[in-house]
Write a structure and sequence with these properties.
heterodimer, A: about 650 residues, mainly alpha, two-stranded antiparallel ribbon, 28 helices, disordered C terminus, B: about 500 residues, 2 strands, about 75% helix, globular
């Protein structure tokens, strides 16, 4: 038994125990099964990661999952530097969320179910990141989607919640449609789904093209873009982002774990994992980068005006995921993964902080009904503030280092990269603004909720507060492993970008062009916009609170557009959902099946029947008539056919 | 085709075919009022048949495409008709599925069939015998007898124990199938005469028929099998039959009966008429893709639980025919596995719907809501089958669908791409169904219902086990298929002969 197998096996065992026995025997003790399972998984993951840091690498098959002639796919594991980073993120955040949930979900009638799903999710996510082949990756990919479906719709009696779960699943299927085809194309091209085999044979396809619907497309581009379809769905990028904001219907710890720190980053992981394929196609890289950049800006603009605390953070997540793709698109996969890693901490912290606020306010989500919370919830406030400083890119905090590296790599890559850098910098301004809008509106000023809510305001229990504090450590310090060399040198540290060197074993690193002066300029810019964003938020929501209202009034068109999220849900409803249902009902059921096919089917015997009736003028039961006449007709037909055919064959 | 003697020392296939018939006779002798005894005899018979079928699974030689467990005797020498039974990798799993499903049907009918109990179980057991016979018969005449013998008890099952519109549905089922079968009969006779009076299927397979004959006979057999599958546009009997049939009838229809169409393609159409089949690849793939998408979209407009699952069968069977006519190993193995999967999953879904129908006596989706709150265990099991139906990895549906799509994509890119859209729509209609039935506020009509009982649990848990067994370790089942599928494809693609296009083929036969 290999030790690393316990990393996914423990949460799987926890899931099985809770789902089979939770309802009758374990009940409100479910966390005592689930949480130790994940903590155990975390401990072994840390041992494994230490092994990777010492130079060990796992790459082996457990058993052959599917065999069909040349199609042989194993259940197998690859643990390298990229997997190691993901292991840290997934097991750490999962363990903290499990601990937090014990308090947050207390008293819920689906308590055992909740922990069972959380365990199942953790197992699936681990299978995804530890896979050594595309099919097992796909298994994990779909399985995390399933858990997301279960957990978004956890309070399934609520229509909005079960709608949101369903939406998440189906929207993701659109992306997986492309992803699945990509996997098949890979198999057909390389005869294998093993990463290592495929990456070893990539020379084969460089420069090859295929014809798609009459267009000639480069094969690497086609494969890369098909894979990217999956990433767009899972990581909620344009145009498949619509499910993530709705996913906030799920319990808040789920939002932190699945819809911020881990599952939604699977798309970024996929692109990084398959970076040798993407590197063959500048077109695909450009698509990835532009999708990321546009999504980053797009989502940030929506976040500016929303009032639902969780949806603001959800749009923020979409935006930050956009940064990660932007990085991958300019070839800076390492920077993308670095941002994935720091983002996991500060974003999980933001969500858990929001959960803490909701816990205190009886489920309230509207920041306009909050205010002054810092006095009542100091731990939540301070940790939330640290996370916000981190996402705003204030020097020293984790988000600063990763975002800065992305912006610099984008700038240094030149060409489209310069444009992406511009977009990224603008987005950084918006990010700082909307993040501190929450701080100033919800935590500062006077309380604006109901008197009952005011009466109940309290800091969350230790089981919730401790994970907040631990995540805050990550939100501040997780970036210190990736300090850019020019800053490291200021403090006399050589090779300060440890993270880049570590991940550089797996992903290609672009050689950053450009003078050191430029890097300093880019960094200075990002710090300036961060501070500017915070200051603007301060002006808007503390010193001159009339401004936002005036702006909304003067630019009511823009405000309405943002408030309604660019009407994309409405658009999809209008161009996809309604026409499909119309075709199903009016065209297929009523016309094709109902009139045409059934018309023929019922018409033929009826015709024969009425003919027979007139012929014989007999009033028998209609049904027998049908049967008898039909059989007679068939018999005659067969007799004739037989004569012709047999005669023809023998003659 | 090589033959392999039976290694078990007793005629296992005859035992499997006639044990249920014997059980039916026994029930016929019992007094009508002895209902518990009748049910017990039916249950014991089906359990025995299943027990007898297990050696097939364990003693099957997976390294050969030869027929196994062969029994052969002269029957009507005047016409050279033989009593000839045998199994290969393509048929064996369906015998096992038939014996398993019959047990579940007996269990699920235990309390829900209240009138003409005696006749019901007689019909059910005769169906079982005939189903097994269809998969075992290696003499065409014998095959045709079993094929038609299925029809009558099935017709009665729908027409006597069905829903309000049962007569219409039963007659429609009967006529549709009859028309198809009669055309097949013509084909069988033509083959018999051409091959110098033999009905032996292996012997008939050793002949390469002239192209024009292949062409006409392909379509004659197609009529029989396409109706059974059912393929678009001859599918409209299925929703009516499924909807009106009693639960056991729907389960047998879904699990085994409609598999016989696809089995017919594999056993007859392709090996007997390989050149025609190959030339017809494009129309067959097109019909499959239409069935996949058409069936799935139609599901979105259904308001009746059973009707929805019936249409989903049209879509899923489209995957089966897609895989078969992809004419490559992945497609064909995926197609056969998907036949088994569909039998398990859709059979189980009908079992589940039967259970809730017994409680509420309504099939309207709008009469449900909040079932997960009232019947949580039932909801969990239904979820398992829902997920298998939408092809989630680690369930059996994924393996089958993925192989089929891979095969289809390899054969014709467009077919794979279009068929894959079925996966999106499939998730749409199944999750929407699940939401309307199980989630949301508790509907007054399901308030206070009892959760699944032990008898029902025993009926569906085997299916759930199979869902994960095949999903996690599909090789336990795929390994049965390899030599037989390879053998079949060797007949289709002998040597390096290029795939002839439809136009070329038509030119050849018209010349």
């Amino acid at each position: 038994m290999k030790l690393y197998l316990l990393i996914p096996a423990l949460p799987l065992a926890g899931f099985l125990i809770n789902i089979l026995f939770g309802k009758w025997f374990i009940k409100d003790k479910a966390n005592w099964i689930a949480t130790p399972a994940v903590i155990g998984s975390w401990i072994i993951a840390m041992i494994t990661v230490a092994g990777v840091m010492a130079g060990h690498r796992v790459s082996e098959d457990l058993y052959t999952w599917v065999i069909s002639d040349g199609f042989r796919v194993p259940i197998g594991f690859l643990i390298d530097q990229l997997t190691a980073v993901m292991l840290v993120v997934v097991t750490t955040v999962s363990a903290l969320v499990h601990i937090y949930s014990a308090g947050y979900m207390k008293g819920d009638k689906g308590y055992y179910r909740f922990f069972a799903y959380l365990n199942l999710f953790t197992f699936s996510m681990l299978m995804l990141i530890m896979s050594n082949n595309f099919l097992q990756l796909y298994f994990g990919w779909e399985a995390v989607g399933l858990c997301s479906y279960f957990l978004i719709g956890f309070w399934y009696e609520k229509k909005s919640a079960s709608d949101a779960g369903k939406k998440a699943f189906i929207v993701n299927r659109f992306g997986d449609f492309g992803f699945g085809l990509g996997v098949m194309l890979i198999f057909i091209t390389f005869g294998s789904l093993h990463y290592e085999t495929i990456f070893g044979k990539l020379g084969m396809i460089a420069g090859q093209s295929v014809s798609v619907l009459g267009w000639t497309v480069s094969l690497p581009t086609l494969i890369a873009l098909l894979l990217f379809c999956g990433a767009v769905g899972k990581s909620a990028q344009l145009p498949l982002h619509v499910w993530l904001p709705d996913a906030m219907e799920g319990p808040t710890p789920v939002s932190a774990l699945i819809h911020a720190a881990t599952m939604v980053t699977a798309g970024v992981f996929l692109v990084a994992r398959t970076n040798p394929i993407f590197n063959l196609s500048p077109t695909a890289m450009a698509v990835v980068g532009i999708t990321g950049g546009v999504t980053a800006l797009f989502a940030a603009t929506i976040a500016l005006v929303q009032n639902d605390i969780k949806r603001i953070i959800a749009y923020s997540t979409i935006s930050q995921l956009g940064y990660m793709f932007l990085a991958c698109g300019v070839g800076a996969y390492g920077a993308g993964i670095f941002h994935l890693y720091t983002h996991a901490f500060f974003k999980a912290l933001l969500f858990l902080g929001a959960g803490s606020v909701m816990h205190a306010m009886g489920g309230e989500l509207d920041i306009q009904k909050m205010g002054g919370l810092r006095k009542h919830m100091p731990v939540t406030y301070w940790t939330f503030l640290l996370a916000s400083l981190s996402i705003a890119g204030i020097p020293g905090f984790a988000g600063f280092f990763s975002k800065d590296e992305i912006l610099w790599q984008a700038f240094a890559s030149g060409g489209v990269g310069r444009v992406l850098w511009g977009i990224g910098t603008l987005t950084a301004l918006l990010t700082a603004f909307y993040s501190f809008r929450i701080i100033f509106v919800a935590f500062h000023g006077e309380f604006r909720g109901t008197p009952e809510q005011a009466h109940h305001l309290h800091e969350s229990p230790a089981s919730m507060a401790i994970p907040l504090v631990l995540l805050a450590v990550g939100a501040v310090a997780s970036g210190w492993v990736g300090v850019p060399p020019f800053i490291g040198e200021m403090f006399g540290v050589e090779n300060s970008n440890l993270f880049g060197a570590f991940i550089g074993h797996v992903v290609s690193q672009p050689a950053a062009h450009g003078a050191p002066g430029q890097e300093m300029m880019v960094t200075a810019m990002s710090v300036v916009v961060g501070l500017l964003g915070i200051s603007l938020a301060g002006v808007f929501y503390i010193s001159k609170p009339g401004i936002p209202k005036a702006l909304a009034k003067n630019f009511s068109g823009v405000h309405k557009l943002l408030w309604n999220k660019y009407y994309i849900d409405e658009l999809y409803n209008f161009i996809i959902i309604k026409p499909t249902l119309w075709v199903a009902k009016s065209v297929l059921v009523d016309t094709t099946d109902g009139k045409i096919i059934e018309g023929v089917v019922n018409g033929v015997p009826r015709g024969i029947g009425s003919f027979g009736q007139r012929l014989r003028k007999l009033q028998t039961g209609v049904l027998q008539n049908y049967a008898a006449m039909m059989a007679l007709g068939v018999f005659v037909f067969v007799a004739i056919a037989l004569m012709i055919l047999v005669g023809g064959v023998k003659g | 085709m090589n033959l392999m003697a039976n290694t078990l020392g007793y005629p296992i296939l005859s035992t499997l075919i006639f044990l249920p018939v014997f059980g039916a006779l026994l029930i016929a002798l019992l007094p009508r009022s002895a209902e518990p005894l009748i049910k017990s005899v039916a249950l014991i018979t089906s359990l025995l048949a299943f027990a007898f079928s297990i050696p097939l699974f364990t003693n099957f030689d997976k390294t050969t495409a030869a027929l196994q467990f062969v029994e052969r005797a002269n029957w009507i020498p005047a016409f050279n008709i033989q009593y000839f039974l045998g199994l290969d990798g393509i048929s064996i799993l369906f015998v096992l599925l038939s014996t398993l499903v019959t047990i579940l049907c007996v269990l699920i009918s235990w309390n829900s069939i209240k009138n003409k109990v005696k006749e019901f179980y007689i019909a059910l057991l005769i169906i079982e015998g005939a189903m097994i016979g269809v998969f075992c018969a290696m003499d065409f005449f014998l095959f045709y007898i079993f094929w038609e013998a299925m029809l009558i008890p099935m017709y009665l099952l729908i027409g006597v124990w069905g829903g309000p519109n049962r007569i219409y549905a039963a007659i429609k089922f009967f006529l549709y199938t009859l028309v198809g079968s009669v055309l097949m009969l013509v084909g069988i006779i033509a083959l018999y005469l051409y091959a110098d009076r033999t009905f032996s299927i292996p012997a008939l397979m050793n002949i390469r028929y002239p192209l024009s004959m292949q062409f006409w006979l392909f379509w004659a057999f197609f009529a029989a099998f396409a109706v059974k599958v059912p393929m678009f546009p001859v599918h409209t009997w299925l929703p009516d039959a499924h909807t009106e049939a009693p639960t056991a009838g729907s389960v047998i229809l879904a699990a085994v009966l409609i598999k016989m169409g696809a089995y017919g393609f594999l056993r007859f159409s392709i090996p007997l008429f390989p050149d025609a089949a190959k030339a017809m690849t494009i129309p067959m793939l097109a019909l499959s893709v239409i069935a996949i998408i058409y069936g799935a979209v139609v599901c979105l407009a259904q308001t009746d639980l059973k009707r929805l699952i019936a249409y989903s069968s049209v879509s899923h069977m489209g995957f089966v025919t897609l895989g078969i006519f992809a004419m490559n190993i992945q497609g064909m193995e995926g197609g056969i596995l998907q036949m088994l999967n569909h039998g398990i999953v859709t059979g189980a879904l009908f079992l589940c719907i039967g259970m809730i129908y017994d409680r509420t006596h309504t099939r309207q989706i709008s009469d449900y809501g909040g079932v997960a709150t009232v019947l949580p265990v039932y909801a969990g099991l239904f979820m398992v089958f829902t997920l298998a139906s939408i092809g989630l990895p680690a369930t059996n549906g994924f393996i089958g669908e993925f192989l089929v799509l891979l095969g289809g994509f390899t054969a014709q890119r467009w077919a794979g791409v279009l068929a894959a859209t079925g996966i999106i729509i499939g998730a749409g209609y199944m999750l929407w169904l699940y939401q309307r039935v199980f989630f949301l506020q508790v509907n007054a009509k399901v308030q206070g219902l009892k959760d699944i009982n032990l008898r029902e649990l025993v009926a569906v848990v085997p299916m759930a086990v199979l869902v994960f067994w095949i999903g996690v370790y599909p090789n336990a089942f795929l390994s049965f298929l390899h030599p037989s599928v390879q053998n079949l494809l060797n007949r289709v693609h002998p040597g390096a002969i290029e795939m002839s296009t439809l136009a070329e083929f038509l030119k050849k036969i018209l010349a």
